[in-house]
Amino acid sequence: MFFRQPQRPDPDRDLVSQAQHGDTRAFDALIIKYGDKLYGLVYNMTSHKEDTHDLLQNIFARAYQSLGKFRGQSSFYTWIYQIAVNQTLNFLKKRKRRAGVSLDDPESSAADDPGLVDTAHAANPEQQSNLNELHKRLNEAMRSLSNSHRTVVAMFDIQGMPHGEIAKVLRISEGTVRSRLHYAHQQLQSFLQECWEQRF
Amino acid sequence: MKPSIERIGSLLALKRTERPEEGYWQDFLCEFHQRQREEVAKRRTFSGLCERTTDWFSELGGAKWLHGAGLAYAMLMAALLVIPRGVEVEVVPLVPVNHRMT
What we know:
By secondary structure, chain A is an all-alpha fold. Helices cover 68% and strands 0% of the residues of chain A. Helix content of chain B is 62%, strand content 0%.
């Protein structure tokens, strides 16, 4: 006899309930709580800061309007994450591909991003410069992927979601998730090969 | 030599720390509240109703074609019922002529 693991209670249950009863501050708290994660997801899918901002406004607006329909069958985070992925994919289908200006914008260069400083090479400027160049190439490589492949890379490699969770959000099989990741990794490897040989 | 998958994974994982700038979320919330107020005002207008209908239709995905076909069929049936079918002509029954030889 197999026992199903009891579902963990949603940590946002109280906030969601308050928001459903009209407490806007409760919904604000949910935005603050999950904003950074959703920002990372949308930004890595679109590679564009302005589009990310507009999409996030639409995503949270959609979530707020649909809050009455949320029944708690999944966690609030999974639910809003799904809205974010669907909205972003719909946007990407409509948008003509354009250069991700923000990522190469001198105001937000890889060199300035504390998250991209490799502490192991921090004392070595040449190594750090190589790393920055590699990150630029990595961003270009990400943009070269199709929307569906970029999405799984953003969710698995960048956001750290397990395969099963990705499959649930995207409503595809786990096997499809794995095969898309495999293909995307191969594409990234080929794209970065030249840069890698020159720098390392 | 290609970078290993693990190395690519490590590089991608560094992007996990990407964040918007300081104060972003405070400004975001101000804009969000403003949009909500505008949305409430817009819902009360006819254009808001049209916009919501369009949004609903576009979210149907593949089913929108079925809905559209169903709507077109319903309108066609309604038109056929409402539009007059033409003038009714009274048919006079034919009576055989009695030719009497006198």
